[in-house]
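Narrative summary of target 7.
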Amino acid sequence: MTDNDRQSSGRRPAHKRRGSRFRARRRAVDILFEAEARDVDPVAIVDDRVELSRLPQPDVAPVAEYTRTIVEGTACELDRVDDTIARYLVEDWTFGRLPAVERAILRVAVWELLFNPEVPPVAAIDEAVRLTGDYSSDTAQAYVNAVLDSVAGNLDALREGEPAPEAPDFLDPGDAEETGGDEDPDAPGETGDPGDPAHHVPSSPTDGAGEPESR
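Modeled conformation, tokenized:
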């Protein structure tokens, strides 16, 4: 499914209450998606959101600290993150063929797997699969889950920068089996950073349709 197909399908993120870590990840996905669409530095977008949220009558929600951590970390390690994702794609399914929103979700999850040992791998994978379900298709959920499972299975080597096995031949977007994961054990509950409101360029995957958040 292309980005245009996704937009024309009218699929939007489900408006369900989630933990603050989930909302921080989702906002990081939005920012990374927007940065790629506009070809700008995602950290600059975070800084812009922070400034706008400090206006006397802001129409932009404050940026959660964990959102900033993800965006800054992913931007700093982007080459290594992207190389890791590409390593576990089948030969005929290149990194550039991935829909942009799924690329952003994978970037967030792979950064957490490689560079944030405080997050259990099962939590990073589970939340990425949930985000993919909000933004994309069931097939995409299964594929994202399979890619991240392969990354998680080789974490020791990948974290040390050592060669790790390539993706198995069966890892294909149409054939991947979804296994999911446990509820995010590091989510501190239903209070936390609000989601991004309508201050998004039209290319944003939420297109201004963020879930209501408690303040």
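The longest helix spans residues 20-38.
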